[in-house]
From TrEMBL:
Swiss-Prot/TrEMBL GO biological process terms: regulation of DNA-templated transcription
Annotated TM spans: none
Protein's recorded name: GIY-YIG nuclease family protein
Pfam family of the protein (one): GIY_YIG_domain
GO terms assigned for molecular function: DNA binding
InterPro entries linked: Effector_transcript
Organism: Salvia splendens
Domain of life: Eukaryota
Region called Disordered, residue ranges: 1-20
Length: 129
């Protein structure tokens, strides 16, 4: 997977009420394609992200990862309550993704990740590690 990018800063949702986007549009993937992705919580609000300071909490796949990330950025989608809890702590949500040739390949990658790791926000088919 690619390196982590900030999707939503700790204060981005608050600034939305003044007309700003809720997410970092400039950090979205610049292509639309199937892929697998991870969402994480950066344990520091610093500008520079280090993998050691990111806690991966969710994995998923989509036919269009850019559109899926936009959905998370706009409303939090099905993770909105969890996002709100993170933002009360002033921490950002970050992501990384891997483009795939097909949705089926993305589904296989997601299944591998879920079999290997225990993501706190995934509810089904989650690893026991």
């Amino acid at each position: 997977m690619m390196h982590m990018q900030k999707l939503i800063g700790g204060s981005d949702w608050k600034e939305h009420s003044s007309g700003a986007e809720r997410y970092r549009t400039q950090n979205l993937p610049n292509r639309t394609s199937p892929g697998a992705y991870e969402l994480g919580i950066a344990t520091s609000a610093s500008r520079k992200l280090h993998s050691a300071s990111v806690i991966p909490v969710y994995t998923g796949q989509a036919n269009n990862v850019r559109a899926r990330l936009q959905s998370y950025g706009r409303s939090g989608a099905h993770l909105a309550t969890l996002f709100a809890d993170v933002f009360t702590r002033g921490l950002p949500i970050v992501y990384r993704w891997a483009p795939m040739e097909s949705k089926e390949a993305a589904q296989r990658m997601e299944a591998e990740l879920l079999d290997s790791y225990d993501y706190a926000w995934n509810k089904r088919n989650n690893g026991d590690h």
